[in-house]
Amino acid sequence: MALIYLDHRFPTGGLALLPLLLFFSVGTAIDVTRLWRSANYPVRPLPTKIGVAIVVLIASVPMLWPLSGELYPADCPVGRLGWISVGAIVALGLAIGNEMFRYRPGETGAAGCVMTASFTILYIGVPMAFLVAIRCLGSSHWGLAALISLVAATKAADAGAYFTGRAIGRHKLIPRLSPGKTIEGALGGVAASIGVSFAMFHWLIPALTGTPIDYPIWGPIAFGLVCSNCGMFGDLAESLMKRDSGAKDSGNLLPGLGGVWDVTDSLIATALPGFLCFAIGVAGAPV
Predict the structure, then answer these.
(1) Tens digit of each residue's pLDDT (9 = 90 or more) over 17-71
(2) What is the distance in angstroms between the CA of the first residue and the CA of the last residue of the chain?
(3) Whose CA is closest to 63, among 116, 106, 16?
């Protein structure tokens, strides 16, 4: 909350939030690589975590550019989203180069290490980099409001599903992946996300930007549906990998929450769809 206030009060273009994004990105990579190791998958934790950080940092080039004293050039051939691809390719090259350096004739496992590193980098680094893209949308205040809206709508679905499921959940959603999730809980999560989306669009975003926003009447419904359903998909994707590895919690960096991955799993799945909602105007635009 302090970093959000700092970014809003003294517009930093998102720089104030970059350390937080790096913590959650690298923290998720720590959880994922720990899971791979516990399941005896071949993995090189350090290069993998560095690769995830590289994707996020290179994606932040447009955000970091003003530190040079100049505005990011509008005619840059890479654009703003192109840096995400650059970062992903550099990180994958690092993972392959590390195996080339370590390889000794007669040894095996290099291909497996490259594959686990590649998956982790693409699964974590690229979606988290789209949170940078959301923060860089429009003016500084608009980008911040868009980012807060995405996180709020996604996490409202998590909370709504949990409390509704605890209260009235009867019918299991996908018990083979997550025994605790129910259909009633999922519907409660969708309703909570739509309700929070209406609140974001009607009150919070205008308050943060200082101007009303133009959005279709069905925009908050569509945004809430996207955030809730994609968020549940991300949650179940984490459950799939934990079940396959025989793990209950993803890590212990955030005690009581199950790990950093348990916080970011839904955001990883909503980052790109959420960005597209803002990019095409479904989630509104400044007037």
Answers:
(1) 999 999 999 999 999 999 999 889 999 999 999 999 999 999 999 999 988 888 8
(2) 27
(3) 16
Report the DSSP beta bridge partners of residue 214: 285
Q: What is the pTM of this model?
A: 0.91
Residue 244 pLDDT greater than 80, yes or no: yes
Distance CA 147, CA 140 (A): 11
Length of the chain counted residue by residue = 287
Give the containing element (helix H, strand E) for 222: helix 219-245
**What is d(CA 250, CA 29) in angstroms, rounded to the nearest whole number?**
10
As a whole number of angstroms, the distance between CA 12 and CA 2 comes to 13
The answer to whether 161 and 153 are in contact (CB under 8 A) is no
The two beta strands, 213-214 and 285-286, are: antiparallel
Q: Which helix (H) or strand (E) holds 278?
A: helix 260-279
Helix (H) or strand (E) holding 214: strand 213-214
Amino acid at 167: A
Q: Which two tokens stand for residue 87?
A: 């970062």
